[in-house]
Amino acid sequence: MPVQTKICGLSTPETLGAAVAHGAAYVGFVFFAKSPRNLDFDRAAALAALIPGHVRKVGVLVNPDDAFVDRAVAAAGLDILQLHGAEPPERAAVLARRHGIGIWKAIPVKARADLAAAARYRDAADHILYDAKTPDEADLPGGMGLRFDWHLLEGFRHPLPWALSGGLDARNLAEAVGVTGADLVDTSSGVETSPGVKDVDKIAAFLQSASQL
What we know:
By secondary structure, this protein is α/β, with parallel strands linked by helices. Helix content is 28%, strand content 22%.
């Protein structure tokens, strides 16, 4: 099966266009004020209008309340909510019912024992996103270019379809997929020149690498 890709944290027409042109299956918009990739709802709406129907729009949110989710979904026409905070399964299920929308739950990973949290979302999410656990003092729950030991996923019985994230770029993607068997990969900082600044050439290289797997 071909490896599908998500380019996350997009914020300009040029980088969004590169992601679409080079075959990203998913594009991600970040709605989190502390992130250098944060979008306001007007910018998100303008970008969403440029996305063809075959590319799915993912909104990345961290412990959002109902009103915030309502505004994000309406502004960007989101297909999927990626919950990147401490949202329990019950909250994920409520949001899925409220919006009739796909739910991805990020699971921060540093040790093998961290993977067990995925099973809690079996009836509440559509996908699990395994991402590197950030330091306790960090302001961001992801998007810091960190990676975890991919070998932790070897032999793990996944409770749901899943995606691999955390420090992925064009140079290490083949190794990451080879070790984990991931068929969906997500990158943000790996296609940037500095935090929040995406690079069209890096996006193209990442997507080209994925297309060769």
